[in-house]
Amino acid sequence: MVDVNKHQMIESNVITGVIIAGGQGSRVGFQQKALLPYHGEPILKPILALLSSQVHTVWVNTNVEIERYQAFSEQLFSDEYQGFLGPLAGMHAAWQYIQTDWAVFVPCDNPNLPNAFVSRMINAYQNQPNPIVVVNDGVRLQPLYIMMHRSMAESLNQAIAEGHLSVNRWVKENDFTEACFADCCSKAFQNMNTLASFDVLEEPS
Prior knowledge:
Layout: E1 15-20, E2 37-38, E3 41-42, H1 44-52, E4 57-61, H2 66-69, E5 76-77, H3 87-94, E6 102-107, H4 117-127, E7 132-136, E8 141-149, H5 153-161, H6 167-172, E9 176-180
């Protein structure tokens, strides 16, 4: 196992990307947010393209309508825990599938991921080696945008078992490094949480 307490070189070709799309879509009428149309195509497609250009391989975490996701990726996995427990459950399950010691996790509803996202996460780690690197957008932490070492899998498991499902809380309970993205555009880490953000009409209230 890599000793993350030592100054290590990490290359993007030994990092796996993971798109977390395992939610119920409660904010968008219980539809699969990753499959909603954005500029004429499912939003998952541009996110896959952006992340695939920066890492070794990309997996997608999804728990329902898996056959629809198969049109976009063969690298799919579901949560080990039942009940839609949130992003922590997807992060935990990822380590049962990916082969690399490092992974970057991103949500399924942001098509504006910076082109240098992974390289900047790596640089932050090189400056301050910790097993977790999380984005700071210049205002606050964005804990759904995270680089993580495999050694954190047991900590994820423990948090879920104890019912502590907040990614923000979990990050702050562990040693982590902040990667500053304050110079990026305002939408770089802006998630899309309403139907109005997509190419669909809001349902009448």
